[in-house]
Specification:
Elements lengths: L5 H10 L12 E7 L6 H13 L16 E6 L2 H10 L9 E8 L4 H17 L3 E7 L9 H5 L3 E8 L8 H21 L6 E6 L2 E6 L6 H4 L12 E6 L18 E5 L4 H20 L16 H14 L4 H8 L10 H13 L7 E6 L3 E6 L8 E5 L3 E5 L12 E6 L5 E5 L4 E3 L1 H9 L4 H5 L11 H4 L5 H10 L4 H14 L51 E4 L16 E4 L3 H8 L1
Antiparallel strand pairs: 1-8, 1-13, 2-7, 2-8, 3-5, 3-6, 4-5, 9-10, 10-11, 11-15, 12-13, 12-14, 15-16, 17-18
Helix pairs in contact: 4-6, 8-9, 9-10, 11-12
């Protein structure tokens, strides 16, 4: 957003150039939740109204109708789909109902049929019964030419799952997650393009697409049906920054919607390749191969974050805990010691997905809104006396009588607000973190971590060589005079890394005809996104120079490998000792 001073705004207004309504920022995101946990039509309608109010936060194509994507994530409307099952000629069973919202390749009828066969076979193999397919009614008059050219065939598959006393909703949801991953793998193996499962769930359903925010309830007439009731609704208007707009990349995703950019996305994806091995084995046992890779190819940063968030939730963690693991809070000086210990432990098993983030999340039971440690994307909330929590990128998205408002506010850095939809309880930031930090003795766990002081003395490890032997070893290690003079010498003399220019005309190690060290085959990448620069001197309250080694533990097992974690504080005595050594 353009940053004008008050004087500049006044001057531009006088000259007739400035229009406040032309200002815009990144995606619009938020949620509406019933704090008493009761489903209502009001929640759905409020989310639709909120989405219409943040239309200016999304991009519009030249045709005036194609947007970057918008959507809604709500509870599965059981009455509506029971009637749909009955209308299809089937008797509604007492079994748990699940519905899949599926994008199919519209112009390839053969591929469509292949996809339906793959979907049905995976569901039947899991032991469930299929009621049938429902073609979702759509109004294509509200989408543009580009959206129409890539529009998928949109259908829903209705499933009779286990009886309620045979399997609870969480276990059924976990099984449906595995079924969906099997379907996705089979479609990829069949090399079919244009297939995507928006949701396959007994708890929720997602309506989204490549249209403008105000067109959602017009394109999908289902959303205007009074039987569409929900306890929570997550809405999102996308402003694409790092991937081209596509139907499947519209948000919300299966568990969350996000405004911002994950700066550490490449590193996070690489780390997940190591984490998913043990994580999948513990949580899914013999079915662990079905969920790998956790992050699908071609996913945007939000889609990647959602995939990991979903895997953690389906493994047994709740949404608030998953949020703290993935997007933690900065360690403020006045932070309660229990919270600090919790974050120190979580940091040892999961690398933070850092970057500006305003998040709206649900795992089916919890509705959560949370911020990143910098609060570089806004989230404002309103709580009403009649049990409605409205959280979003802007205030006033949903018009409510001022007399019913009992609280207004803005989530600060690292803060979150949550509703336990099953219990009908609203938890503010401190209460959520108190509950999570009290679930385990994190202080005892981090007490098992090692620091540099626990390692053998450097003096005991020093081996002295004569000049000839030292030179021979330096040559064998690939050390050059340039390395000695420009890199090692300043480190020895001042205990600091040498400062040089950004230019580097050294040939890449992989194409060099000279012997090179293995470390020289790697290059550090820096994020190139629309965020203000941050450094550990000016932003000490949100940055840490602590480095952890051995954090390849199972992120789902709180007992795994704590004694193998080594923590170095590069800003403190550990750092000085490390450099000096």
């Amino acid at each position: 957003m353009t940053d004008f001073t008050t004087d500049q705004r006044a001057r531009l207004a006088e000259e007739g150039m400035y229009r406040p309504d032309y200002e815009g920022d990144a995606c619009g995101v938020g949620l509406v939740a019933a704090t008493d946990g009761r489903a209502s039509r009001r929640v759905v309608q409020s989310a639709v109204d909120a989405l219409k109010a943040v239309w200016h936060r999304g991009a519009v194509d030249a045709d005036g109708k194609t947007g970057d994507g918008a959507g809604l994530h709500i509870d599965l409307p059981l009455r509506f789909f029971d009637d749909a099952v009955a209308a299809s000629g089937h008797k509604v069973r007492p079994n748990r109902l699940a519905v899949g919202m599926i994008f199919l390749p519209r112009t390839d009828l053969g591929a469509q049929e292949d996809c339906r066969t793959i979907v049905e076979s995976a569901i039947i193999e899991a032991g469930y019964t299929i009621y049938g397919w429902r073609q979702v009614p759509v109004d294509v008059s509200v989408i543009g030419q580009k959206a129409q050219a890539t529009r998928p065939e949109i259908e829903q598959i209705m499933i009779a799952g286990p009886l309620p006393d045979e399997q609870d909703a969480a276990e059924f949801e976990k099984t449906l997650y595995l079924v969906r991953r099997r379907i996705e793998k089979r479609v990829i193996a069949a090399q079919i393009q244009g297939f995507y499962i928006c949701s396959l769930s007994c708890r929720s359903i997602i309506y989204k697409g490549l249209f403008l925010a105000e067109s959602l309830s017009v394109f999908y007439p289902d959303l205007c049906d009074q039987r569409f009731e929900s306890r929570v609704a997550i809405f999102h208007q996308r402003y694409s920054t790092n991937t081209f707009p596509q139907w499947w990349l519209a948000q919300p995703f299966r568990c969350l919607a996000h405004n911002g950019e994950i700066n550490t996305i490449r590193g996070n994806k690489n780390w997940m390749l190591s984490h998913e091995i043990r994580m999948a084995s513990l949580a899914f046992g013999d079915n662990s191969e079905d969920i790998k890779p956790v992050i699908p190819a071609g996913a945007s940063d939000t889609a990647a974050l959602d995939a990991v968030f979903e895997a953690i939730c389906r493994s047994g963690r709740d949404a608030p805990t998953a949020k703290l693991m993935l997007v933690p809070e900065a360690a403020a000086p006045d932070m309660p010691p229990e919270h600090r210990a919790m974050y120190q432990y979580l940091a040892s098993v999961m690398e933070p997905w850092d970057g500006p983030a305003a998040l709206a999340m649900t795992d089916g039971r919890w509705a959560v809104a949370g911020m990143d440690r910098n609060a570089l994307r806004p989230l404002r909330y309103t709580l009403t006396s009649d049990g409605l929590l409205i959280v979003g990128s802007e205030s006033g998205m949903v018009v409510v009588p001022e007399s019913t408002i009992v609280a207004k506010g803005r989530l600060g850095p690292g803060e979150m607000i949550a509703v336990d939809l099953d219990e009908g309880v609203l938890l503010q930031d401190r209460a959520v973190k108190d509950r999570i930090s009290g679930e385990a003795d994190y202080a005892a766990m981090i007490g098992e971590f090692h620091t540099l002081a626990d390692l053998p003395s450097v003096e005991d490890a020093i081996v002295r060589y004569d000049r000839a032997e030292l030179a021979r070893r330096q040559i064998a290690a690939g050390q050059t005079m340039e390395d000695m003079e420009l890199i090692l010498s300043p480190m020895v003399e001042s205990a600091k890394e040498a400062i040089g220019s950004m230019g580097d005309d050294t040939p890449l190690a992989v194409i060099s005809d000279k012997p090179r060290l293995i470390s020289q085959f790697f290059r550090q990448n820096f994020s190139q996104v629309t965020n203000p620069p941050i450094d550990p001197l000016r932003e000490r309250h949100v940055m840490s120079l602590k480095t952890r080694f051995g954090n390849l533990a199972n992120i789902l097992d709180v007992r795994d490998q704590r004694e193998r974690v080594l923590v170095l504080d590069l800003a403190g005595a550990d750092g000085r000792a490390l450099v000096a050594a």
